[in-house]
Design a protein that fits this description.
heterodimer; A: about 260 residues; alpha/beta; Rossmann fold; 2 domains; four-stranded parallel sheet; 11 helices; B: about 450 residues; mainly alpha; Fumarate Reductase Cytochrome B subunit; Fumarate Reductase Iron-sulfur Protein, Chain B, domain 2; about 60% helix; elongated
């Protein structure tokens, strides 16, 4: 198999050359710094490249968009981050943003407009599903050997933004063996990391939320837990480790599953 | 005539006491803060028709939801009969709505059928509360009084339905015995009447009249108990749904006063044109009842403590202290406590107590994952997370109070633009040696 190197386009470089990409690909802090999640970003970048999408990342100019600060009550810090980013977006004339992280998606889509930042914000699942349906992305349904897959709805795609169908439509094309957890779609249980919980220890209780949710996933007997959020991935991967199931059951992002299926 | 006078007096007392009770609650709204402008009426009517009248969210728990929907729809139909009773009682007429013809028959027939269905549903509700251990009805916020309140309200509704059925039965039998033809259709009561084999016409008249009075006086009593009960939702749930927040659940309201401050900080040029001193300094976030918005307060009054929110809360499920229902009940209780003091002494009055800490602890607030399961579940579109975040906003921005790790996260964002301690210089490390298979 031949391989080709991908040079990820950076916004500042393109602008220096007088080029303007169609999409800003928002990598997010987890995408940039979480070792496990970097692989998801790499998989999605391969798909973007495969599709010949005109995109660029902010690279070193990217900075937290303020979501965790906002959910933790620090509106001041959130708005500082947001207004600075809006200024950067203005400088690069950003019109369309594509995100993987549902939290970043939600903030850009629903909350930045209040501060004057209005963009066409696309979540990667919407983007991927559209490209599959339009035939640009040809998934080989036999490539994953009909492995059983379950899907954990991230709160900020599901209840927060009512994106339930795209991930399911994609996963059902990847396998004939898609199984729902007992609590799914708008009933889905949070992984426990939202609302800035990711960054702190949980309050005293009798169980960790991520264990409760991992048990939901294990009950399905699926071999793959598909996730679509960096925090959910951390939580459910931890859950699998806690249950000593990390050998038998894998937690993969939908972008990774697609990249694997079309052998990118 | 005596009957009319007694009726008019009871009705006057009902309205008098009711407006007194309502005013006691409504006057506290002036202490609350703005939430959002109530626009988009078409959308609101739509939400009201689906969520309130269609009971769509109650059906998220389909079995018990169906019984609630029957009670709700039953009320919607039976209320026409109650209106007729009020007109009859005041004017001395008998079955004044008869001119509606076939429509009248439909109204009466469905009211009669629904009376039975509501009664059955209420018996199920009461048995669930009395004889079964339903987790949803338990919790630290569920004091004895909450259970008594629920059982009283349910019992009154049951009595209302029984009196309605005996009224209809008495009416049918009385008409039968006097040889007059009865008006209106009463399928259920006709069946009940079929079991009655003997009796005098006079007895059935008494049965009818007594049930009539018991039914209408119970309605008056019920209406006046509601403002003091969690069953206030009988009145407030439909308006609360109409006044729903229409934004996506994921969206938090923007704090415009912060935007002004941040813009001043980022752009010193504007400092001379728009000083932040021009705007009266308002407390950031919510510390006490009066910092909450009118919608938060409305939510808290409309809450019927069903606990569907708490039953789906990931924090609560895993044994943490947070209970979204408690947050609503706490706001309502705190306003009930502080409201009268503010009426007397002004909005700035300080009784050395507050919603935060005296009612809702920091431990509860920091346990929220903002997953919005509570808001999604609430049958009447109460929004708990926005209030929880507003109290966090107070804690963080007014008191600089937050768990240590959260403060560290803030520091990281401020210093290196990420919630973790990584340098922006490393933001492209992920893209190193990235390759794609060429097919």
């Amino acid at each position: 198999m031949e391989t080709r190197k991908i040079e990820v386009p950076v916004m500042a470089d393109l602008f220096a050359k007088g080029e303007k990409p169609e999409y800003l690909f928002w990598v997010g802090c987890a995408g940039a710094f979480d070792d496990r999640y970097k692989k998801v970003v790499r998989a999605f970048t391969r798909i973007l490249t495969h599709l010949n999408v005109s995109f660029a990342v902010l690279g070193k100019e990217e900075t937290c968009n303020g979501d965790p600060a906002r959910r933790a009550g620090n509106e001041m810090l959130y708005q500082m981050q947001a207004l600075q980013l809006i200024e950067i977006f203005r400088r690069y004339d950003v019109k369309k943003i594509i995100t993987i992280c549902p939290h970043c998606f939600n903030v850009f889509k629903n909350e930045y407009p209040d501060l004057g930042g209005k963009y066409e914000v696309v979540n990667y699942l919407q983007f991927l599903n559209k490209n599959i349906e339009e035939g640009n992305l040809k998934i080989d349904s036999t490539s994953l050997d009909n492995i059983s897959i379950t899907y954990h709805d991230p709160c900020y795609l599901g209840r927060a933004n009512e994106i339930y169908d795209e991930p399911r439509s994609i996963l059902k094309k990847l396998t004939g063996n898609f199984v729902e957890m007992h609590r799914n779609k708008s009933f889905a249980l949070c992984c426990g990391a939202g609302g800035a919980q990711m960054f702190k220890e949980a309050e005293k209780g009798n169980k960790e939320v991520f264990i409760e949710r991992t048990e939901d996933a294990l009950k399905t007997d699926a071999k793959v837990i598909a996730t679509a959020c960096p925090f959910c991935m951390t939580m459910l991967t931890d859950g699998l480790k806690y249950k000593n199931k990390e050998q038998e059951i894998r937690n993969l992002d939908i972008a990774e599953l697609i990249a694997q299926s079309i052998d990118l | 005539m005596t009957k009319q006078i007694i009726f008019a007096i009871s009705l006057l007392i009902t309205f008098g006491v009711f407006s007194y009770s309502i005013n006691r609650i409504v006057r506290f709204f002036r202490f609350t803060r703005p939430a959002f402008p109530v626009r988009e009426f078409r959308k609101r009517i739509n939400v009201m028709l689906t969520v309130a009248f269609g009971q769509t969210k109650i059906f998220r728990r389909p079995v018990i939801g169906l019984f609630h929907a029957l009670v709700f729809w039953g009320f919607c139909v039976i209320i026409f009969g109650s209106i007729e009773m009020v007109i009859d009682g005041l004017t001395g007429t008998g079955r004044v709505l008869i001119f509606l013809g076939p429509v009248y028959n439909i109204i009466m027939a469905s009211g009669d059928i629904f009376a039975l269905l509501v009664a059955i549903s209420i018996i199920i509700f009461l048995s669930r509360r009395l004889f079964f251990h339903i987790k949803r009805f338990e919790g630290i916020e569920m004091k004895n009084i909450s259970h008594i309140d629920a059982n009283i309200a349910l019992s009154i509704i049951l009595l209302l339905m029984i009196s309605l059925l005996t009224m209809n039965t008495g009416y049918i039998e009385y008409m039968k015995h006097t040889g007059e033809s009865s008006v209106g259709l009463f399928p259920v009561s006709t069946v009940i009447a079929g079991f009655i084999t003997n009796g005098k016409a006079e007895n059935f008249r008494v049965m009818y009249e007594t049930s009539w009075w018991v039914h209408i006086l119970l309605i008056f009593l019920f209406a006046n108990l509601l403002p003091y009960s969690k069953h206030f939702h009988v009145f407030l749930s439909i308006p609360n749904v109409f006044l729903s927040r229409l934004e996506p659940l994921g969206k938090l309201p923007n704090m415009d006063n912060i935007t002004r401050e941040v813009k001043l900080m980022l752009d010193p040029d504007t400092a001379f044109t728009a000083s932040s001193m021009d705007v009266p300094q308002e407390r950031f976030g919510v510390k006490d009842a009066e910092d909450a918005s009118w919608k938060n307060y409305f939510d808290s009054l409309a809450c019927t403590e069903c606990g569907r929110c708490t039953a789906v809360c990931p924090a609560n499920i895993t044994g943490k202290k947070l209970s979204p229902r408690k947050v609503m009940m706490d706001l309502r209780a705190r306003m009930k406590e502080k409201g009268p003091l503010m009426v007397k002494n002004g909005r700035d009055f300080n009784d050395n107590r507050s919603l935060l800490r005296d009612y809702i602890s920091e431990e509860e607030l920091w346990a929220c994952t903002t997953c919005n399961a509570c808001a999604k579940e609430c049958p009447i579109n109460i929004n708990h997370p926005t209030l929880i975040i507003d109290i966090r906003r107070y804690l963080v921005m007014e008191e600089a109070s937050a768990p240590g790790e959260i403060k560290a996260m803030f520091n990281n964002i401020e210093n290196n633009g990420a919630p973790w301690q990584y340098s922006a210089e490393d933001r492209m490390v992920w893209a190193k040696d990235l390759e794609i298979n060429v097919h």
